[in-house]
Amino acid sequence: MKTNLTYSQYNNTNNGNLLPHKHRAKIQKQKEQVRENKEQLRPARAISFGGSASLNKGVKKAFNKTVEFVYENEAAYNAIYSWIVAGMLKPLFVLNMPGSEEKDKQIVATKNFLQAFIGGFLGLTIGGGFIKKAIDVVKTNLKLFKINDKNEIDVFKEDTTKVLEIAKDIVKDEHNSIKDKFKNASKQAQQEQGLKKVSKYLSTLFKDTDYEPTIDEVSAKAKELISNFIKNHQGAFEGEKSIEFLKQMKADAGNKSTYEDAFEVLWKNSTGAITAIGKAKISSLLLPSIMAFLFAKKNAQKEAQEKAKENILRNNSSFKAQQEQFQKMMNKNKNLGLSFKGNLLTSAIDGSARLIENMGMSNIGISLAKALSHAKKPSARMADIESFGITGYWFQNTARSKKIDPSQKLGLNVHSVLVTIVSSTAAFIIDWALDGIIDKSKGKYKERLEEIAKSVSSMKHGESLDKILANVSEKIKMGIKDEVTRVLDGKKTEELAKITQEDIDNIIKNLSATETFKGFDLKPELIKKVADSLEQSEPIRKQIKQACADMIGSEDIAKKLARSIGDSKALETTIESLTKTYGKKLSKFKSLTIFTLVVRFLVPVLMVPFSGKLKKKIIEWTNKKQTATAKTA
Question: pLDDT per residue over 160-176, tens digit each?
């Protein structure tokens, strides 16, 4: 019989077999360890933003959480990332780059430091906090109505499934907020002493929480949402042109349409463009004073401080006049048809959302959203607008400034223009070149979803809850399902334990105590049927959730996949929708990461020596021209 083994391989194999069992097992273990080490050293076979096989679970989970955070909080990500890259790293690199005069490098480094930290602060507080909350209100309002055949807005009833689910998610988010996490951590830590107290506080703070609201809380929030929408927001969407635009925004079932995505990106990032001039202006006001301090020019510093005081006094008087005008407008809010409830912050957020809706549904707003929808990467293009706006301001302000030396003006402007053009172009090219990675990752992601769906499709399904609860309202359905699910999830067993009569009695007692179930006849046999159905179908959702644990938005994936299991057409649509959303999340993360890295750090640092040389060439050319003019004169 022919063998493919070489002589040495054959010898080693047989020698291994002749060894005593104990030694043979030891050698085999050593071989396996060597093989395992080689596998660990081997490069990943495919680059995937979803995480390669060599990455451990913790790294993949951290990466996916970061991507999810960036997708929902891009203004905050830009601010934090810019602080690190542009505010700290870039000034250090600029100061140590050869090829430019020391003063030029100090001015560029100081300007970038100021701009990054002032811009980051404004972006984090206004764009990443206040405006994001206002945009979340707008996004919610867009879900509270449909366009009927008469091109009219039909507002959903407060007790419809869609509104109740939206309300439930809002209540959960409110209770799972950072503020509540700190509060719960402090409460839990009070029961401990010493180091255990610190340990308990940190473990509670970083523990994933999932607050389950009662049906009364959900019902109250749903009523509040619809009431507030009709009073304060419905009118913003009712124009003829707005209706047509809204129909296009709502065209893709289960997906964000191109227009809806562009609308959200436009207004979520508008603060960057709006505050661009403001943060540049603040930086330019502070720059001469700081530079004077760095160069020890006491007289210039004193003059700058006096001018700054004059500007502050002038601005304060202007601010007071604007404040009085704003107060007068707010005193007339009843005439404007506004009806805000809650604290001052909630009212301000709701008012900002109303302003965004009115501006967004105006002719200009619709035109801007449609124009942005043509961009493949709208978030990156909004960042471009901000970058060019800041550069334009700095160029104009530097040219007019009487405090900056003429030779330094040239260096600053040459560097600013060169950096903006080269960095924006480089970021666009690099971002475009890496699009293939996103496409590959989407393919792998889709395959994984299909595998999960296939693995659970043969599992036993319980009787449909819609069939069991056919003659009850949506609020009653949700209340019963949530309470039974809470009891079943509380059973700490590998398999869901059968519900007991005591459990059924407790469920009826708890539900009967709520406002929603007053007057409703809760029968034990109805609760038993619901429990039997969930006992059979709930494991499907749990298995999907477990399988999706390392995937972006696992909770959302589990929910949507579980609903579609058993319906091949709905399942196909759901998988396509989830894959498309996944691609958008990765693409946004990639684009914003590359843009900040290239535009705010890499190119500005590398351009320092080039801009210095270009500045010298321009000065030489200017001097020659002036000399030639003087000779002819």
Answer: 989 999 999 899 888 77
Query: Which residues share a beta bridge with 147?
Result: 153
Q: What size, in residues, is the chain?
A: 633
What residues contact 466, with CB distance under 8 A and at least 6 apart? Answer: 477
User: Backbone phi, then psi, for 155, in 5-degree steps?
Assistant: -80, 135
The CB density around residue 290, as the number of other CB atoms within 10 Å, is: 18
Summarize pLDDT for 557-597 with one digit per residue, the tens.
887 887 777 777 888 888 888 898 888 889 989 988 888 88
Report whether pLDDT(210) > 90: no
Give the model's pLDDT for residue 254: 58
**Whole-number Å distance between alpha carbons of 481 and 257:** 32
218 CB-contact burial (10 Å; exposed 0-12 / middle 13-18 / buried 19+): buried
For residue 363, count other CB atoms closer than 10 A to its CB.
10
Give CA–CA dist 314/298, Å, rounded: 24
Handedness of CA 127, 129, 131, 137 (dihedral sign): positive
SS3 state of residue 145 = strand
Q: What was the pLDDT predicted at 559?
A: 78
* Chain position carrying tokens 């009843």: 334
- Is residue 420 within 8 A of residue 391, CB to CB? The reply is yes
Chain centre distance of CA 440 = 22
Which residue in this structure is represented by tokens 């055949």? 149
Tokens 């048809």 correspond to what residue?
Answer: 337
Q: What angle do CA 8, 9, 12 make, to 5 degrees?
A: 85
Phi, psi of 412 (to 5 degrees): -65, -50
**DSSP-H helix ranges across 47-89:** 57-72, 74-82
- Give the separation between CA 605 and CA 105, rounded to whole angstroms: 10
The token pair that represents 108 in the structure block: 């560029």
What element of type H or E holds 155? Answer: strand 153-155
- Average pLDDT for 344-353: 85
The pLDDT tens digits of the residues spanning 510-548 come to 999 999 998 888 889 999 988 888 887 777 777 887 788
Tokens of 211: 């607050």
Q: What angle do CA 61, 376, 564 make, to 5 degrees?
A: 50
- In one letter, which amino acid is 181? K
Helix (H) or strand (E) holding 154: strand 153-155
Contacts of 515-524 with CB under 8 Å at 24 or more apart are 515/216, 515/219, 516/215, 516/216, 516/219, 516/475, 516/476, 516/479, 517/215, 517/476, 517/479, 520/472, 520/476
Is residue 357 exposed (0-12), middle (13-18) or buried (19+ Cβ within 10 Å)?
Answer: buried
Residue 587: CB partners within 8 Å, gap ≥ 6? 377, 435, 438
Report whether 49 contacts 589 (CB < 8 A).
yes
Average pLDDT, the chain: 75
Which token pair is 581? Answer: 């959303």
The radius of gyration computed from the CA coordinates of the chain, to the nearest angstrom, equals 31
Q: What percent of the chain has pLDDT over 90?
A: 11
Two structure tokens written together for 196 = 């255990």
pTM of the model: 0.65
What gap in Å lies between CA 286 and CA 305, rounded to an integer?
A: 9
How far is Cα 474 from Cα 219, in angstroms, rounded to an integer? 10
Give the H or E element holding residue 147.
Answer: strand 145-147
- Which pLDDT value is given to residue 186? 78
